[in-house]
Amino acid sequence: MEIHADWVGGLGFNSKGGSGHEVLMDASREVGGEDKGPRPMELLLHGIAGCTGIDIVKTLEKMKADIDDFKISVSGKRADDYPKKFTEVNIHFVIAGAGLTEKNVSRAVNLSLDKYCSASNSLSAEVTGTYEIISTE
Predict the structure, then answer these.
(1) For labelling alongside 67, which of 14, 61, 88, 133 has CA 20 to 30 A away?
(2) For the domain with range 40-135, which CATH number is right: 1.10.10.60, 3.30.300.20, 3.50.50.60, 3.60.20.30?
(3) The whole model's pTM is what?
């Protein structure tokens, strides 16, 4: 996997990966950027949300659960000193649907966090997950 990033002036970079999709990243105005795109550290959290979400949807589909709605919130705590890496990441899942059991959702979340999600497992941070189930039956 590889991406290429091109400087677009100021503190902005436009990156493109093998999928062909582009992402414009920029710094905040407070540090000299123009606020034209998400911060690189935000994109790490976006990647974790997408990675865990895909894992959980695929796992629950195999369990014959019907998902009507799925929301993910990811929060990260960063170190005060450079490189100011994430030290803690919490992912909260709210899953609505039919056929969602505590056992199945718990298993899907744990499989993603412990085994399948490459994004969260690439970090040295402590990663935790919580979830809510909303039954639509």
Answers:
(1) 88
(2) 3.30.300.20
(3) 0.92
